[in-house]
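Translate sequence into structure tokens.
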Amino acid sequence: MEQRFNLFGTETGTKIAKRFAGLGQALHQTSLPAITAELVSLRASQLNGCGFCLDMHVKEAIAAGEDPLRLHLVAGWRETTVFTEAEQAALAFTEEGTLLTREGVSEDTWANVRKHYDDEQTAALVCLVGMINAANRMAVITRQKGGSYQAGALADFKS
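Result follows.
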């Protein structure tokens, strides 16, 4: 499938993208570990089928020093031994926050997140899951392709 619309080729799309980049920078300034944020973004992007975001978050994670093997195992995180308990809690939270039901995130998953993350980190996780899902949806709707993203490209894309 070809890209159907260049969202970033419009004034509106560019303004929104700059604000998303600014929100992303704010999240990176929290105490939530950067690798956890990339794992969360990668898992939501896998679930949503967003090639552009998969490309971006794999490259950003590698640039941040993440082991590529762990990135290959994110989709099957429950069946591996390479993720910490805190990362597993964040990944479960991501899945439930992405594949919403009427319950939203289960009480067990919420309790596990709260066991591993303080208030500021929990706030960052909630915002991150919401933001990556919104970004995934915009990219999937417009059929934005992955493959050409360069690590760090969004760092200079501020309002």
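Note: Residues 33-147 form a domain with the AhpD-like fold (CATH 1.20.1290.10).
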